[in-house]
Amino acid sequence: MTDDDLFAAFEAGTLDAKIFDHQMHIRMGWIYVCRFPLAEAVARFADRLKAWATALGIPGKYHETITWFFMLMISDRQSQQQTGNFEDFIAENADLVGKEPSILQVYYKPETLASSHARQYYVHPDRFEAARVA
Predict the structure, then answer these.
(1) How large is the angle between the packed helices 64-81 and 38-55, nearest 10 degrees?
(2) Which of 10, 34, 57, 95 has the most crowded CB, counting CB atoms within 10 A?
(3) Which tens digits make up the pLDDT trace of 28-81?
(4) Distance separating alpha carbons of residues 133 and 130, to the nearest angstrom
(5) Could you give the C-alpha distances from 67 to 1, 29, 56, 71, 133, in angstroms and in order?
(6) Mean pLDDT, the chain, as a whole number?
(7) What is d(CA 133, CA 95) in angstroms, rounded to the nearest whole number?
């Protein structure tokens, strides 16, 4: 699917859940970051993600900290690299979709991400200094 097709399906709430894995989350975030100013991109993406999860019957799956963290990372890197397509973006930023260690593990303690507070509100990275030095 093209970025336009994915965007339209996600906005309409008709995107097939079977294709919405972690890399697709990152791709959708990248699409929003490329189309809107950061604050609007985050707000729109988060709203659509919540609505989509609710429509699928899994409203508790949404995680505010994880959503904001990835949107901020995508925006920061895209602003520096100015890639024109997702394939080029992800080739330069494979850590955003890597499994071991997850970039979340670099920036957050597991107990932080597991908290209900982090699920409902954005929490700043609590391993940031260690990640910056590494």
Answers:
(1) 140
(2) 10
(3) 999 999 999 999 999 999 999 999 889 888 888 899 999 999 999 999 999 999
(4) 5
(5) 23, 9, 18, 6, 24
(6) 91
(7) 17
Tokens, residue 86 = 């997702």
Q: How far apart are CA 50 and CA 26, in angstroms?
A: 15
Spans of all domains in the chain: 3-133
User: What does the alpha-carbon distance between residue 120 and residue 43 come to, in Å, rounded to a whole number?
Assistant: 14
Phi and psi (nearest 5°) for 85?
-145, 160
Residue 61 region by backbone torsions, left for phi larger than 0, else alpha for psi between -120 and 50, else beta:
alpha
